[in-house]
Every structure is written in C-alpha cells, then in structure tokens.
Amino acid sequence: MIKVIGIIGSEKGQYSLVRLIRDVKNEPDNQPLHIVISSPGGDGELAFDMHDYLRGLNRQIITECKIQCASAASILFLAGDKRTAGCPIMIHNPWMRVEGDAETLSAASQFIGDFEKRAEKFYSDKTGLDKETISNLMKNETYISPSEAVSLGFATEAKQTAMALIHTNNNQKNKKMEVKKKGENKLRKILAILTGEDETANMMDLTAANGDIITIDREEGEPQVGDSASPDGSYVMPDGSTIVIADGVITEIIPADTSDEEIEQLRAENAQLREQLATAQAAAKTNEELLQLNAIKIAGGTEWLAKQCSHYKPAGRKAQMTGGNNNDGRESKTAQRLAELKAKRFVKS
Questions:
Q1: Cβ atoms within 10 A of the Cβ of 59, count?
Q2: How would residue 326 be classed by pLDDT, with cut points 50, 70 and 90?
C-alpha cells in the first residue's frame, strides 16, 4: 500500500513524483497498486505527471481517498481503475501567486488559463460530464460527497451510501469542544485511518435545511463536537439545530431555539448568581485591609494600637479679627503689631 499524505509538491516534506516512483518500486510486481490519498492538494502540474506515470505502468491501480482529497489530489485520485471515495472530493479553478511586470503577468495569465482548460477536459474525460458542467463545479470550488462522487463518475464506489438527518435533543446543552481532549481523539482517529488500522471507518452524509450536504467522519449515531467534517461553514439542519464546522472539525452544535420555560429558568439562575455576587462583594475585605489587620495583630492587637494613638485635643479657638478686638476684650497679636507700626510711623513724621 502506498500512502500519499500531505501536500503534493517537490519541496522538502512534500509528496513528490520521485517519492511516488520509489514507493512503486518497493511494491510487489504481481499485485495491484493500492494508493491511499489524504491530501489538501498542491502542484497541479506535478499531480498530472504522477497520474500519467501511474497510467503508464500497465498495472491495475486502486486509489482510495481518506480524510481529504482536494484540488491537485483529485487529479491523482482519478488515476485509479477502481476509485473508492472515503471523504469529499474538492475541485476548483487553478490559481497561482505571481509578481512581475506586465509581460510576466500576461504570461502567467495565459499559463493558468491553459491549465484551467486542461483540467476541465481531464475531469470531463474521466467522469463523462460535459465541460460546461465541470467548469461550473470548478468555479464554485465544489465539495463532492462520497455518494455524489460515485453518481458523478469521480469514484467507482463510496464507503457509505446512507443519508441521515440530525435529531438533536433540545434539552441537551452542547458546548464548544475541549480542545485538548477532542483534538487528541481526532488525532488518534486520523492516525488509525492513515495507518490502515481502521479499515471499517465510514462517513456519514447529512443534508442541511437548504439542501447543502455535509460529510461527517462517523458511521452511525448523532454528530458530536470534535468529529471530522467538511466543508467548513455554518449549517442549519431540518430540526432547527446548527452545526458549525471550522478547519475540518465540528466546533459547535447549537440546539434549536430554547423554549420560553428554559429562558425563564436561565433568567432566574442569572438573577440568583448576581445576588450571590453582590453579597460576596459586600462581605469581602480588600487585600490592603486584611494586611493592615494582620500587621496590628502581630504588633500586639487593639491594646497596642490604642497606646500608639495621640489623645491630644486642641483647645477651642475663637475667631480673630485683624485690626480689631476679640470678644474677651484682648487685642490679637496681629492687631498689637499693627498698632506698633503705626505709632513708629507717627513719631518719625
């Protein structure tokens, strides 16, 4: 079994034509070549080279896609005489990054336009669909479910054929996944599939209220947060619940609208929590207060504190009027000083 995992390309860590040739050489000559693909795509030109190489071997080729089969990976998948779709297949218009002057950009535009026509003809020849249909599918970046892949000619068989609807318990409060736990479960599942330990793994097609089809990595039962799924997006289901898919994983399942009774219950719980919070805040002391009380206790308590406090009480004062007399008949010091200065001026004059 040959496993094409990751990006198709010639750079380090990517799955290249050289690696494919090496892997084929290591397979027995008297058996069909079984190629398992799990790839987001990559270099389209290289994918065509891989396809042509396999078709030129004059051997029976079996291709099988798991987890993901998108873009250039779909070209390699179509090299198989027998093609098993175990995940959605995505096709789209080719694109590329380029920079340069007008001549360079014009050449790039011509190249990608020619490649688009080549891909349209390739998909059309392989599936039997007319080029216009293929062109529309590519323009819309279409995810084709395993069962649809069979009916459209992309695959010869699918690992699941059942159509299912979701029935979510409205009383169940689905929360966002715990990333660590769910991530570990997903990783174990992917590794089991890629290593061939889970050959019975099937996919489940679900139909949303608007007719969109999403594919869940689950053979039976209801979808759960953490399940692998595609394509990404938010989907309202026939029962009113909503499935949210991000980065190929169900991140949230939102139940249908909550009943009036449940809303009132949540409001009552909220009011109770607010009341408890207010009580706790009123009774709580700040950290600074606690530190001060603790310092007083260590120093000797309230008796020690009483000795440190001053008991001096200033005598009561009466209002003083500058230049006038106090109510007790005595002149203020300020008035006396002013009188002395006036007397000196009088004598000098």
A1: 16
A2: very low
